[in-house]
Amino acid sequence: xxxxxxxxxxLHLDSPLRGLEADPSAPVEAIRNATRQALGxxxxxALNERVDFVIIAGDIYDGDWQDFGTGIFFSNxxxxxxQAGIPVFAIRGNHDAANRMxxxxxxxxxxxxxxxxxxTHTLDQFGVAxxxxxxxxxxxxxxxxxxxxxxxxxxxxxxxxxxxxxGYAGHAVYAPCDVGRLRAHGYDYWALGHVHTRExxxxxxxxxxxxxxxxxxxxxxxxxxxxxxxxxxxRVVSVEHRVLDVLRWENLDIDLSGAADxxxxxxxxQAALESAxxxxxxxxxALRLTLTGATNAHAALTGDGLRxxxxxxxxxxxxxxxLWLEAVRLRTRPAQxxxxxxxxxxxxxxxxxxxxxxxxxxxxxxxxDWPTTLLGRLREGLPSEHPLHAAAEGDFRxxxxxxxxxxxxxxxxxx
Amino acid sequence: xxxxxLTLERYGPFEKLELPFDPLPGRLNVIIAPNGFGKSVIRAAxxxxxxxxxxxxxxDFRYGTERMQILADVVxxxxxxxLVRRKGRGNTLALADGxxxxxxxxxxxxxxxxxxxxxxxxxxxxxxxxxGGRELIRSQGRLGQVLFAAGGGLGxxxxxxxxxxxxxxxxxxxxxxxxxRPLWSALSDWEQASTxxxxxxxxxxxxxxxxxxxxxAAETLKVLLAEQESIAAERDRLQMTGAxxxxxxxxxxxxxxxxxxxxxxxxxxxxxQRWRTALEAGAKTxxxxxxxxxxxxxxxxxxxxxxxxAAWLDAAEHFETLGELRGQALGAERDLPKVEADLAEARxxxxxxxLALGWxxxxxxxxxxxxQRARRHLQAYAKLQADKTAAETLRxxxxxxxxxxxxxxxxxxxxxxxxxxxDRARLLRADxxxxxxxxxxxxxxxxxxxxxxxxxxxxxxxxxxxAALGQTAAPSDARLEATDKALSQAETAQTQAERExxxxxxxxxxxxxxxxxxxxxxxLPPPDALAAARAQRDALWAAMCAPDPSxxxxxxxxxxxxxxxxxxxxxxxxxxxxxxxLRRDLAKLQADLQRDDAAVTKATIAVAAVREELxxxxxxxxxxxxxxxxxxxxxxxxxxxxxxxxxxxxxxxALADLKTDLTRRGGALATAMxxxxxxxxxxxxxxxxxxxxxxxxxxxxxQRSELxxxxxxxxxxxxxxxxxxxxxxxxxxxxxxxxxxxxxALNRAPDEAPDATGDALTQIEELRGHExxxxxxxxxxGDMTRAVHALSTVVASLAPLAPxxxxxxxxxxAAALQRRFQAERExxxxxxxxxxxxxxxxxxxxxxxxxxxxxxRSLQGLRAALHAETDDAAEAQxxxxxxxxxARRDRIEAMQALARQGRGLGIEALADRTATTAExxxxxxxxxxxxxxxxxxxxxxxxRNNATxxxxxxxxxxxxxxxxxxxxxxxxxxxxxxxxxEEALVLHATHALLREALxxxxxxxDQPLLARIxxxxxxxxxxxxxxxxxxxxxxxxxxxxxxxxGVARKSLDQLSEGTCDQLxxxxxxxxxxxxxxxxxxxxxxxxxVLQTSDDTRALAMLKMLLGLxxxxxxxxxxxxxxxxxxxxxxxxxxxxxxRLDG
Lengths: 415, 1142
Fold this sequence. Notes:
The complex is a heterodimer.
Chain A: E1 2-8, H1 28-31, H2 34-49, E2 53-56, H3 68-83, E3 88-90, H4 94-98, E4 111-112, E5 119-123, E6 128-132, E7 156-162, H5 179-184, E8 189-193, E9 199-203, E10 206-209, E11 225-232, E12 235-243, E13 248-255, H6 262-280, E14 285-295, H7 298-302, H8 306-315, E15 323-334, H9 338-343, H10 347-360, H11 370-378, H12 387-392, H13 397-414
Parallel strand pairs in A: 1-2, 2-3, 3-4, 6-7, 7-8, 8-10, 13-14, 14-15
Antiparallel strand pairs in A: 1-11, 5-6, 9-10, 11-12
Chain B: E1 2-11, E2 14-20, E3 28-32, H1 39-51, E4 69-75, E5 80-86, E6 93-95, H2 103-110, H3 115-122, E7 123-125, H4 126-137, H5 141-150, H6 157-171, H7 182-200, H8 204-259, H9 271-304, H10 310-314, H11 316-357, H12 368-411, H13 419-428, H14 434-457, H15 466-471, H16 477-521, H17 529-544, H18 550-571, H19 573-620, H20 628-673, H21 683-745, H22 754-798, H23 810-865, H24 871-901, H25 907-916, H26 919-959, H27 962-1003, H28 1008-1020, E8 1025-1033, E9 1036-1043, E10 1049-1051, H29 1057-1078, E11 1084-1087, H30 1095-1108, E12 1114-1118, H31 1122-1127, E13 1135-1139
Parallel strand pairs in B: 3-12, 3-13, 7-11, 11-12
Antiparallel strand pairs in B: 1-2, 1-4, 4-5, 5-6, 8-9, 9-10
């Protein structure tokens, strides 16, 4: 008996791509409904590969997403599968559980595992038992896997679980579990969800995070997609990751060390951009750029309009329409020896020393009430991780460090 | 820069004012002049000297601007200059010789200072000192920037601070929501996108409503469609019932008809037509038979009424010719006289013609063919005669033409041999027209000459004459290359030597500058100061031995000066050592410099030697080039000129050769023409004459040839004409021979002229006609006579039939007989016609009778088929048969229609169905249904539209990405907002950080500038004030004076005017010191800045200024004479005082 199934997770349908500013030259069409497009590609993949069933390991939607049309879109896509005779099994993840919209959504084309306890669906024609349990609500601190049924003898056992496993940076802890325990549970394949980076935790048995279908921000870089699992004679023959995303996210660090001036620095930037766009082709690329290194161009780059300058360079690329600049982070340093600058016996040296001292031990009220005032008016519009929140609460060391770098460049340049 | 001498000419109140200054570092220049003398003019003059006299200067009040100028001798670290500044536009500063000041020297003089810097920092009076001090303390204005710049390179830090704040506020102020600012614009976008998202998001209840609406609309449509289908079926049933009802009726009628049709024969389709035809035929044939019988009877009756006399008919054969004979007899009686007259005339004319022909009556007429042949032969006679005459005329003409041509040919001149002329002319033209060739060769020579001249003119620097070109020679390439290489090497060596020399000079400059700096910082005396002082001391010591009391004071001063030198040397031992080392280095560098000079000189000589070699080569080649590129250019041009000269010479040689050749060929042609050899210029005329001769000869030859050709042709034509004439004569002779035979057959005399014979032929033909007419008339007379007799004979034979006619003339009797015979024959014909009619009528009767019989038989058969005895019965039977046939067809048609329209139902079922309701009820029901159908269609359309709209709404809801799009826009707006807010935050933090750092720095006690101000202020005040400090106030930072204890503080308001001035001077001195560290200082012109100070503090201030003069030349102007006494307290020789009293 040989069969194939598709394992996906973390669709986060209609979740907007974050951090991208409106830019007339950016590939707007690429991000329009990117998550929907990725799901469409997933269904196409399942149909083309003629998989025998599909497993979705949670987080079909964003937790705060309120558009019922998203659920209908998902249901319609699933109907394409069931109409082709491909059953779909899914669990609700933390986002799905938190989403009130899903409670009203009928899923006639998907078998949703119950949230009260883990239970099993069998596919007799393939000799498969699929075990799973949905999240009852957003917060699931206990290890759900412990209560999963024991493997059904004689069948290929698949466990579908939304979990943070042993913990991942950037991912909240949900239904934590131990990989060793999963391994010992006796299932042949653990179809996990929640972690957005593809990872194979084990191959004996297979314990797989397929990652999400579409990266949504610069924290979700690289190719995204789902896994095609082929089983023959009760054993996993292959687990292939198939790329399904429609827009790629990347972090690009560019070392500008030794760049003689701003022109040379921008030439390096353009070359790096060109290479990055080429690597991502044919997909459009959303890029966070970080400029590093000690360079004479530091002061010029610190000045006004760095982002616009980079965009200008990007527009000169052959495939400029495939590039979207998410952010430009300036981490360069002046080419001058910072220690030598500080050792100068004049006012500049003393001023830099004062600046260092202030940054090392800033006074609580150094920034005044400006951050608080501004935050009071912008709070709703700013993401929670925005530095203005921390600054308003008196934690502005990171901002001061940026300020120090700027001052160092400006003073070295002008004084 | 320092000024050693300033001269004002026609400037201000001065027509000419010369002011010498001590330019040495550490020397204070004091000018003492009363108020109104022009101290401020001197201060302004230095500014005008350095930065220009303003367009509208107040210094023209006495002398105007004409010849207004300021002259100065200035000393720079590396140079001494004499400058002149004139009144005028543009750059009016020049060196003494009028040359512009080199920019490098100008930079050394002024650095980046401008008139404003001089005015605010270096050109001071009391008011400026005070206002500047106040500005300085507030760290505002240009002076404050200069102070900070001088204090450690932070001149633009305040600007940076302001810029950071402006940049932050440009993004958006925290307290004012200005929508045009990026921060607030992004927030607006985010808010709008959030609103859009809320509105676009589909809620479950909305979805449910859409779903329910869609379902309900679909259900409604379904119900209506079902009703539509139902009533459509009902209508269909009713329509079917209505449609079959007539057919069922027809079927029923047909069946009823057929049920009673047992005795009715089944007839085929054509039976009725056959019956009708038979009936008609029977009636018609019977009628025809009756008519035939009637006709027979009428014929028989008519025959019985007719009879005739057969004897007349028996004599019919006689009557057949009787008419003809009677006609002939009547014609003869009418025509005989005329015919007899014609006979007599013909006989008369024949006799006359025979007489004319010379014939008697026995002579037979020649046969007509003979006559015709003779006439044809005679017709050819005229043509033969004409041909003979024409041929003879042609022959004669040809003879005439031939004679004329022979005469013309004989008249032509004899042939001339022009081949030699033609050959030589052709040879002369063999390579083209000689004139054109000459012109072309001349043009080439001129072109080559022009090119040569241009090449000569193009030789750079020193265009050569052609003769010089021939007298000079270009160097070989190898020699030129060798010289080039040697020059390059020499120049490289020279450059290297000069570079070493420059390097050495720079090292000397560096060492000198360093030494000067050491001397300035450490206030080191000149190297020989100690020796000089000791020498002076020793001299004075020696003099002291002489009885001169004033020498004691001099000795004391000299001792103190020597001590000061010694103290300086001791106090700055390290610097002295360093200075000594520098001096040694300088000495060594100077020695090296001398070697470098020698090397440079040697290299220069080598370069000069090679250049001389180069020049020699150039001279040998006729040029004056001074370097290799120039020489190469010269040689290239020279070679070009040589080449062009060769080309010109070649062209000239070609021209000479051409002239020789043409002269030779022209001479040959002239000889051939029997003319003397012509000059080359008239070769064209000679050729024209040759051409004329050749043309004439060729024309004559052509004429001769043409005449000869004509003579040949004419000879040939003459022979032909003679032959034709002979042939024509022979043809005429042959005719005569044949004609002779013919005249004999015509019974004509042999010697009769052909024309006469021709006339005879006409008479013969006429005679033949008369004789023929005579014979005919004679025959007709006979015929007429015989006809009359024959008629009489026949009439006589018929006389027994009509004895009453015997007395009548034969022709009348014959006519009567004929009439009677005709009447009898007609009567007999009528009898025969009647007999024939009877026969015909019998035959017609038989035929008609048979047809009637046949028709009756046929009718009888048809009646039998109809089982009828009579036609009426048959007719009735036939009508029934037709009705039965129609019934059968109706039944079939009805069955077919019912099968077609009965929806598969049987007859009985259809009958049952129609029987259940009345037709009227069905009709009413059908009308009602159709009415409902129309209404239903409208309802269905509306329901379908509703269902479609609901489905589309549902579909839109399931496929809409409006919410996702709005969410994406919100994310984009949020990203922009976050970035802008972060940028604003960083700018704010940067601004705050810099401000805090500056504040801390300003507040720091060890801040160098502040410390220096404190020191100067303390020294000026003699320790009454320990210095200054910075205090924070509500308005910001401000400077305060520290009391002697260094703790107590006084605001500037609490200081006396003099102390304030002293503080301002301290600020100014500190600022000038720092300025001098960073840039070349200008002279400080301090005008009455000491006026508010007592002597003690004035002395302290002079000491400070003296100290400042080590870095900045100080020129103090005062109207206080006692300042001179105060200045006397300073070390001697360090203060240069001059008094100006007008």
